Amino acid sequence: MWKEIEKRESGRVRPRSFANRVKSSRVASLQLSNHKDIVSPHKGSVNSLQVDLTEGRYLLSGASDASAAVYDVQQPQKLEGGGLIAKHKPIFVIDKQHEHRHKYAISSAIWYPIDTGLFVTGSYDHYIKVWDTNSTQAVMNFKMPGKVYSTSMSSLATSHMLIAAGTEDVQVRLCDIASGAFAHTLSGHRDGVMTVQWSNSSEYVLVTGGCDGAIRFWDIRRAGCFRVLDQSHSQLGRRPPLLERSAMTKGSTSRSSSGGQNMSKATAVSRKSSHGNGAKHSGSNRISAKGSIKHRLHPGMLSSQDRATAHYGAVTGLKISEDGMYLFSAGSDSRLRLWDIESGCNTLVNFETVRLQTNKPIQLSVSEDSALVFVPCMTVVKAFDFWSGKTYFTFRGHYEYVNCCCYSALDQELYTGGNDRQILVWSPFISYEADEGTTRNEDSWSD
Amino acid sequence: MSTQDPSSSSPSKGTKRRRDEEEAAAADDAETAASESLEQSLTFSDTLVALRMMRAQFPHIDKVSIRPFVLRSQLYSSVVDRTQVDRELESLRRTKVLRIFKLNTGQDDHAIMFLDDYLNQIERAVKRMEEKNVHDLEVFEWFKIHVIDTRLEPNISHQDLCSLLSLGGKVKDNQISVLINGGVIIRQLIDPSMYWFAIPNVGSMLKGLSQGRKELLSLLSRRRYKEMLLASLEKKRLRLSPLDMRFHLRDLIGSGHLKTIKTPTGLVVRISKE
Q1: In terms of Cα–Cα distance, which of B159, B166, B167, B165 is closest to B194?
Q2: Torsions phi, psi of A150, nearest 5?
Q3: Closest CA to B83 of A218, A391, A197
Q4: What are the b/e assignments for A384-397, b being 16+ CB within 10 Å?
Q5: Chain B contacts of A382, Cβ < 8 Å?
Q6: ipTM score here?
Q7: Contact A354/B255, CB-based, under 8 Å?
Q8: Is A46 helix (H, G, I), strand (E, B) or coil?
Q9: Tens digits of per-residue pLDDT, A186-220?
Q10: Which residues pair with A197 in a beta bridge?
Q11: How far apart are CA A145 and CA A380, in angstroms?
Q12: A334/B107 touch (CB, cutoff 8 Å), yes or no
């Protein structure tokens, strides 16, 4: 360690790479924390965890017993075990006695991205509430048409304050905090929407994953989604650099008769022409006229005809990498897929999972510089390498299914919450020397 | 990598046996491939090599005539790097060497068949239908020429199918039902206007596949420590499945239900808990 610092001092190692080396060695030694403990007041399974984005200090958790709590993960309330174990109790809890509480389970609890003065909770009682943190009062209520599965706010947004909500209704709703009303709805999914995520590169792009297995990209300034991810469009690994690609695409577009966007445009154009005037191919026209929809569609809504699926089951978890270029998705077909956002292709990295939880949305987490992705797989949390798909670490500690995990890049700690009502902390290993008191005429069995 | 692993996992008697077999293999490749035990040929270095070996090892069944197919999970158990398997399958699929079909036996099951085997299988299905005096069989020809060549995915929408078939001739509705009866196309349950491509006459195989899986898993879970030596497990025969034990073992190891552990006496197969 001292040698590394010396190298940095003399300039042989750049400060950025020195910091990255230290961080990755800390992540490699993650295990169940022996010096930090979060005392969870929840009486139901923990569904959502998030560390605040401004300071990285406060952890917000939402649970199935309609309770939400905030913990300070850097300053403990109490020190036990001879000053070695820090116990973090919640700073406040919103539980069943609270006047503004939710009636049923809270499925997602997120911080307002600008500061920690507000947080938003979405619950199975069809309401999304915006709370003031200091007074612990609900200041706004949005009623949704169905159970709220997931909520998200953009951390890049400077011109809007929209909460994107995914519910069991097929439409994604955008709620505006500034006005207290709904901004607009995005339709295109054919079943409930389980996960929503704002993009890391643009404040207007939203990614949603639905129970129909489709992942759609929406630009909220336009109608309809502009991309639907199809699992059969694949590319082998990272995209090649620009010059090679322009030579390749000439060859591949002639071969790929099944490009998603091309196909939907082609069928839409052929459908429109078959409505308008006489038929081109007699046989196909007759059959297509029977099956197609009668009214004309707005060009922006053509994407609702695109039925490509990203997974063979429901999409239960989505996470965009920190650089905004790749999207990681988990589905109820027990597959994890890595997508290249720009080209919309599946990169065919195989993450070895046997089973994933299928009925609830799960929260995934990515380490900084996107080297590892943390996925809750049944009762363990696995850390996969982003590009090779190998399982690097397996975190076993929960007694029942794990629902959510949150990686804090500041301290390189991982917080996981599960159906066993516990929030576990996984931190880099710190060894303690033997206690002074036991080295005299006693051993650890003495009174 | 493939030469190292089998020799390190099996005892010296096994390598000697394999070397002897390789000398005799010059004469008859298929026979030795079929007679190798699973322990010697568990891992391969390359997907195409693995595919060819497993195709040669496909069990010969008298009652049903079906061309060999390989399951995706079997490939995962044979090649160490799964990402490499996925990518090589993708490139082989794009160059039309093989076709991938989605099966309805459980989540994410895919069957891989070489293209010539598939065309052969369609031929046999057409011949069988001719014997039953079914008409309109030229639609299979159109299917082979226009649809299989251009659509490489495992599914196809109704509109695409009709437009591609009409390149051969005038398409009628009952011709689509002839295709469905022949078994090359299956309607999707979720979406009535999409079809899956399918292998004709594979139904009994799929039933045998799922029943064989259940039987093998129950066989192992009834044992006290839920494990068994691979060598003795391989000698058992499954009652309910026409496919042999090696087929099922590869499939279950690849899908993660079973795992293999190296012990001094050989490989041991155990039910994995998660």
Answers
A1: B159
A2: -160, 145
A3: A391
A4: bebeebeeebebeb
A5: none
A6: 0.76
A7: yes
A8: strand
A9: 888 888 999 999 999 988 999 999 998 899 999 99
A10: A207
A11: 34
A12: yes
